């Protein structure tokens, strides 16, 4: 990548704005492959993820029926009852089988989305470089052609997501460890607040602010690896080489990279909140259907109603993640052009 990138402008003072604007422009001009790839990811999430969740409900069906019978018996004998008290261990075992499968599916679909958007941005660069020469310009990028160009990169892109997950676990688990240590009373002078004892300044600093700071630093750390998948597609490198290259390219543009990553994360979080709210309407009708199917078993229906809004949001989230992937690919273009210009300046200075 040289300094004369035809996709990204060279105005460093407004780099973050230019990258986001270019990403939105490419999303608008190539919306068919962008949102087509998002639709495929959403369909896969619905079919495969829905199948996994349906299998979990099938495996837990007897536990839910047992919980319903136990609750009815306690009500008949006017005894106290704790929901799922005897079924909790079995439900936890099912959850420990389901969550890794859903996480694996999420990583595969994320690898597909980010790879597809990097290919789309590369295709846009080729069309821009061809200019008005219709003979040399590539044609429209169909979903079939997109899949053909993405397929060689998907394995390495998945490994990039795996390495990124490992990097995310470090600050994530560290913040949770701080909360656990405070909860167990292992930090001198820091006591978990109760109804009668309000939160102290020490608890606010250590038990509330410190985990948030750790997680915020984790987001900044992840921003250094945001262009890694696009680097893999552009450079055709290994996953570890793409991660190292991403770290190197973002070293001189930490502020711009972190700002773009945090802005994209905020947009995804906002969209997820809205989609989850819309999912409550789906949960209402799903709950009514489950009640009719199970003969009024509120225990299995309650679980379905709880998870449905989140499931709906996750199925529709690729429609938001796809434009974010375009922005990350444009960020890689800008960082590569910036590094190329710095190299040219250094050579000329010598």
UniProtKB/TrEMBL annotation:
Domain of life: Bacteria
Source organism (scientific name): Streptomyces misionensis
Transmembrane segments: 34-59, 98-121, 156-181, 201-222, 253-278, 298-331
Protein name in UniProt: Uncharacterized protein
Keywords, sorted A to Z: Membrane, Transmembrane, Transmembrane helix
